[in-house]
Every structure is written in structure tokens, then in C-alpha cells.
Design a protein that fits this description.
Number of strands: 9
CATH class of the largest domain: Mainly Beta
Shape: globular
Protein name: AraC family transcriptional regulator
Pfam families: HTH_18
Distance between the termini: 10 Å
InterPro entries: AraC_XylS_family_regulators, Homeodomain-like_sf, HTH_AraC, HTH_AraC-typ_CS
Number of helices: 12
Radius of gyration: 19 Å
Keywords: DNA-binding, Transcription, Transcription regulation
Number of domains: 2
């Protein structure tokens, strides 16, 4: 298995060439937005997205919004996967996408931070296997139930379903690129909707309120900054990301991931800025 982090710097906003995967991958969003075309299906990806691919899946990406993205990737050799008791579930989930809850996102960030601090290959392999088990069985990941309810609600009106999906994706794009300074009315104007209609459609399409989604994005960006040595003061972070004050920032972060920002800074800050230490454990 191999774990690494990627930061995409945009040079070409168009689609990349489709590439066939040669192993199973887990891609966990960290920041930014992009579009992906996986096996011919185009979807929007952001810091809350999780993607599982399998050998033979074909994927291309584009960054039409003028910003890059970053993510953590776990590559799993098929021979390693074959030895897991849940191998069939992983095979069945190839080409699958969903969203990660706050707890799973924090678990993946803590895993990366521990790897940067230094672990031997044995412990790294065991930690990765445990994380993969948690990922597979983490109930907040699946969006199938939400999608099924939406499809049933508008199955006789495919044009309405498509319009609602575009509206929800448009709101996600605006929020991800807004530095969290826009109010609800401004976001609605950006996507050509009323605040009430946008709120109702977004909840139906994503299973989340606009406020909850915005908080998820804000907290994930804050976690990225808390992981940087010598990061900005919490009061400045609160102002930068549209929180009322430092107390509000602390309350929202604690509600999302169960720890206050000061503790998370200690947990997430690596010893140095080198690559993830020995990030390619051999698993027999």
C-alpha cells in the first residue's frame, strides 16, 4: 500500500486525458474544487468528497473554476486487497463516490500527521488496514439513500432533477470559492435562485443544509492551516473564515470533530515538513 498527498496547481482548466487505473485507490479531498469524469460520468468534487476506484476505471479531471485542489490518496495493490476478508465489498465499490463525515476526515488527517512524525512499516500497514475498514463501514459516506429519494421524487421530471443538481453544484462551487464571506442572499443571487428555493433544493439533493455544508468546508480549511507549523492565531483564523469570533470558531470546530482548535494544532502539526515518512509499507 502507498499513501501520499497531492496538491494540484492549475495550468490548464480543460479536461486531462482519461487514464485507466491499475490498482484500487481511495481519494480523500482536503481542499479546493474540481470536476471529475469517472467511467463517463461527470461529477463535482470538493474537500468533502471521497472517491474509490478499481483497476480498469477510467478517470479524467478538469479545474474550470480557476483554483487547484489537494487530496490524500491511498493506493492498494490488488494482491493486498485480495487477502482482506471484505475484499468483495471493495471490488463492488469500484468507481464509487460519496462524502466523508467530520470524524472520518479528522481520522485521515491524524493518520497523515502520524505518518509524518515517523512510524515503522509494520505499524503503518496495520494503521492503513484499520483505516480502510473504517472507511468502508462509515455510514456517513454513502449518498445512495439521498440520491434514491431525489430520483423517486422527480423520476417523472428528469429535467427538474437535472436542474436541481446543477443548482446544488452551483452553490457548492460558489461556497468553495467565496472565502466564506458571502451571505445566503448573495450565494442565491450568484446561482440565480431565491434563498428559500436554494435552501430547499440543496437539502433535498445533498442531504445537508447549506449552513452545515459551509461549516464542513470552513472547518476543513481551518484544519489544513492548523497542521502548518507556526500557523496563524485563532482570532485571525476566525476573522479570515467568516466566524463571528474566536469563540464561535472554537465551538463550530469542536462540534464538527470533537476537539478544540488548540488541541488539533498539537495533534496535526508534524515534526518537520518532509514527505510522509516511509509512506510505502510493504504488506505481505
Amino acid at each position: 500500500m502507498l499513501i501520499y498527498q497531492v496538491r494540484c496547481i492549475v495550468e490548464n482548466h480543460g479536461w486531462t486525458e482519461s487514464v485507466a487505473e491499475d490498482r484500487h485507490k481511495v481519494i480523500l479531498g482536503r481542499s479546493g474544487v474540481y470536476r471529475r469524469r469517472l467511467n463517463g460520468v461527470v461529477e463535482f468534487s470538493d474537500a468533502t468528497s471521497v472517491l474509490l476506484t478499481r483497476p480498469g476505471d477510467e478517470m479524467a479531471v478538469a479545474h474550470p473554476f480557476g483554483c487547484g485542489d489537494s487530496y490524500t490518496c491511498i493506493e492498494i495493490d490488488p494482491t493486498v486487497l485480495a487477502d482482506r476478508t471484505d475484499a468483495a465489498s471493495w471490488v463492488d465499490r469500484g468507481g464509487w463516490s460519496g462524502t466523508s463525515g467530520a470524524a472520518l476526515d479528522l481520522a485521515h488527517r491524524l493518520l497523515v500527521a502520524d505518518f509524518r512524525r515517523g512510524l515503522d512499516g509494520f505499524e503503518m500497514a496495520e494503521r492503513l488496514h484499520r483505516f480502510l475498514t473504517r472507511l468502508l463501514h462509515q455510514s456517513p459516506l454513502s449518498t445512495d439513500d439521498v440520491g434514491g429519494e431525489v430520483d423517486r421524487a422527480v423520476r417523472r421530471r428528469p429535467a427538474t432533477l437535472a436542474a436541481h443538481r446543477r443548482l446544488a453544484d452551483g452553490a457548492r462551487e460558489v461556497l468553495a470559492n467565496s472565502s466564506f464571506t458571502l451571505g445566503l442572499d448573495e450565494v442565491a443571487r450568484e446561482v440565480g435562485s431565491s434563498p428559500h428555493h436554494l435552501s430547499r433544493v440543496f437539502q433535498r439533493m445533498t442531504g445537508s443544509s447549506l449552513t452545515a455544508y459551509r461549516n464542513r468546508l470552513r472547518v476543513r480549511e481551518v484544519l489544513d492551516i492548523l497542521a502548518e507549523p507556526g500557523g496563524r492565531p485563532l482570532g485571525a483564523l476566525a476573522s479570515d473564515y467568516g466566524f463571528a469570533d474566536q469563540a464561535h470558531l472554537t465551538r463550530v470546530v469542536r462540534e464538527q470533530v470533537g476537539h478544540p482548535p488548540a488541541r488539533l494544532r498539537r495533534l496535526l502539526t508534524p515534526v518537520d515538513e518532509g514527505p510522509i515518512g516511509s509512506a510505502s509499507p510493504q504488506v505481505e
